[in-house]
Write a structure and sequence with these properties.
mainly alpha; 6 helices
Length: about 140
C-alpha cells in the first residue's frame, strides 16, 4: 500500500506522528466552510462521505495506538464529541447526508464544522484548510 504523507512533511516520521498529522488534516477539513470542503475533496459528489471516512480512518488508529495519550481530557472529549456526531449521522441511514449538497444545506454539517473548530482550538492546530485535494488513505 502506498504511503501518502502530507505535502512537505518529512519522510522519517514515526507512524504515530504520521497518524496525528493526518488526523489534524482531517479535522481541519471538517472545520472548513462547505465551499472549501468541496474543494478539499476534489469536487467529489459524495464530499461529506469522504470527509467523514477520512476522519474515521485517522481517529480510530490514533485512539487505538495510543497516539492521543498526551492529550488533555478536554481535547479527548472534543474529539470524541466530533466522532459521536459523525456516528449519529451514520445511524440515521440517510444517504443524502453524505452528498455534497448536504454540506451546504444540512444542520448536521454545521454542527460537525463547529465541533471540528472546537477540536482545532483545544489542540492549538492551524485553522487553515489542508491542501486540496485531501488524500483519502486508510491506514493498516
Amino acid at each position: 500500500m502506498e504511503e501518502n504523507l502530507p505535502a512537505g512533511g518529512p519522510t522519517d516520521m514515526d507512524d504515530g506522528t504520521v497518524t496525528l498529522q493526518f488526523l489534524q488534516l482531517s479535522v481541519r477539513a471538517l472545520a472548513q466552510p462547505a465551499s472549501v470542503q468541496v474543494i478539499s475533496t476534489g469536487h467529489s459528489p459524495i464530499a461529506g462521505d469522504e470527509l467523514a471516512i477520512d476522519f474515521d480512518s485517522w481517529y480510530v488508529p490514533a485512539l487505538r495506538d495510543g497516539c492521543l495519550e498526551d492529550c488533555q481530557p478536554s481535547q479527548l472529549a472534543a474529539l470524541k464529541r466530533l466522532d459521536a456526531t459523525l456516528a449519529d449521522m451514520t445511524q440515521l441511514q440517510d444517504q443524502k447526508l453524505w452528498l455534497t449538497d448536504a454540506l451546504f444545506e444540512n444542520h448536521w454539517w454545521s454542527r460537525v464544522r463547529a465541533e471540528a473548530r472546537q477540536v482545532i482550538e483545544l489542540m492549538s492546530w492551524p485553522e487553515d484548510p489542508p491542501e486540496p485535494p485531501l488524500i483519502i488513505h486508510v491506514p493498516d
